[in-house]
Amino acid sequence: MTPIKIPEGSAPEDSKMVEFPRHRLRVLEKLGEGGFGMVSDQKKNTFPPLQFEFSLPEDADESELIIEENCDGPHEAAAEAAASTATTAETFVLQLGDLERNQIKSRRSEVHLCEAEGILDFNGVSTSHKKQLVVIKSLWRGASENTKKDFLRESSWLASLKDPNLCRIVGVCSLEEPLYVLQEYSELGELPQFLRLQNLSEGDENGVSYGCLIYIATQIASGMKYLESLELIHRDLSARNCLIGKQYCVKVSDHAIYCSRYSNDYYLADTKARLPVRWMAWESLLLGKHTSKSDVWSFAVTLWEILMCCSQQPFAELTNEQVVENSNHLYQNDGLARYLPRPPPCPREIYDLMGECWKRQAADRPLFSEIHLFLQRKNLGYMPCTG
User: Fold this and answer.
1) 203 and 108 in one domain?
2) Does residue 173 surpass a pLDDT of 80?
3) 180 and 195, same domain (yes or no)
4) Of 179, 228, 243, 321, whose CB count within 10 A is highest?
5) Residues at the annotated binding site for ATP?
6) Which long-range contacts does 196-203 make (Cβ < 8 Å, 24+ apart)?
7) pLDDT at 129
8) In this predicted structure, what is the pLDDT of residue 198?
9) Which residues are catalytic?
10) What pLDDT score was predicted for residue 98?
């Protein structure tokens, strides 16, 4: 349920999750199947048109998927899609446009957007009646006992992680099905959506400065330094897996792979696994080797995204197949590999850091502790605007 590589065995002793009352959850949106979802405030929804991802069993018909628009009855587009795909078991994406309060009903897992009341803060103190947006990680009804145990074990491990630059597990609903795990969400949403709305300018108070972008990247490096210290590997580090809040506070998350708005960032491999090939180190993609040093590679791609204000996908001029072939050039060490170009606002020393992170040999890449210290020094004295 998470791309983070969770160690075998029991979770640490300090990983106890708080049972959260279901009646204090208010569903804002249901985004479809897949287990994870994004959360937004309906009154301030600035997301692009929603996409709903769904899968159908081989014996499915129009009744298997119902999308409601504040009324009963199947949505016409959903019924047509269900009918046209009823003989397959693949996953499809249905574009629904600017609908609000949509609901997807399915006999499999669902993605929830929720508002929670009474979440404990970072120090374990109740926020009383303060409402907070959360991501719901849900497990489908009827899952096997082993699947439930694995789901809760993974969640317990994540609950043990306590760092200001990582999204916290804030509660669990485990007394009845479906099982829910609640993960905090940030006020300003996902980093790509936020940065695409900004103007890169030193003097424009409505935009973000270069110093602000480095400040954002420094926080991501800090969160990853914490994971590195625990020998935990993220495996899907990217701008889409970072959330941003007030005063540009950034937290690393893990649920973008299940959010259909990012489906184009993943490549469906022959193994049916969804791989973020444009962010992956060559040894992870071709040899299946995942280490903190492969996360370092992904961090450099994330840093490139940030300095580009997420205006384009990495290697946008290449197909997914060509990106895989590019990794093969690195594997062969034939000198034909291509690297991401230097972003316009990027000083040479920052681009040199990216190059260090993209060294062919993983052992030659820097540690996150070194990256964090380097970025701190390069942005010494910067303070985010508090206005």
Assistant:
1) no
2) yes
3) no
4) 243
5) 240
6) 196/309, 196/310, 196/311, 197/46, 198/309, 200/309, 200/345
7) 57
8) 87
9) 236
10) 27
For the residues 370-384, what does the mean pLDDT come to? Answer: 94
Asked whether 11 and 4 are in contact (CB, 8 A), the reply is: no
Q: Cα 336 vs. chain centroid, distance in angstroms?
A: 31
Strand partners, 120: 126
For residue 96, give the DSSP letter.
E
Torsions phi, psi for 240 (to 5 deg):
-65, -20
Identify whether residues 176 and 311 lie together within a single domain.
no
Look at 5 and 374; give whichever has higher pLDDT.
374
Instruction: Report whether 175 contacts 17 (CB < 8 A).
Output: no
pLDDT at residue 114, rounded to an integer = 60
Q: Roughly what angle, to the nearest 10 degrees, separates helices 292-307 and 210-229?
A: 170
pLDDT greater than 70 at residue 183: yes
Tell me the binding residues for Mg(2+): 241, 254
Between 331 and 137, the higher pLDDT residue: 331
Question: What pLDDT, on the 0 to 100 scale, is given for residue 56?
Answer: 38
Helices 348-357 and 292-307 pack at an angle, to 10 degrees, of: 150
Q: Burial letters for 206-222: b for 16+ Cβ neighbours within 10 Å, e otherwise?
A: eebbbebbbbbbbbbbb
CB 296 within 8 A of CB 371: yes
List binding-site positions. 240-241, 254
Q: Give, rounded to a whole angstrom, the gap between the first and last alpha carbons of the chain.
A: 38
In the predicted structure, residue 370 carries a pLDDT above the cut 80: yes
Residue range of the domain that includes 162: 22-184
Residues 165 and 215 in one domain: no
**Could you tell me how many residues make up the chain?**
387
Contact 323, 315 (CB under 8 A): yes
Whole-structure pTM value: 0.77
* One domain for residues 174 and 259: no
What CA–CA distances, in Å, run from 1 to 28, 154, 186, 190, 226?
22, 8, 21, 19, 21
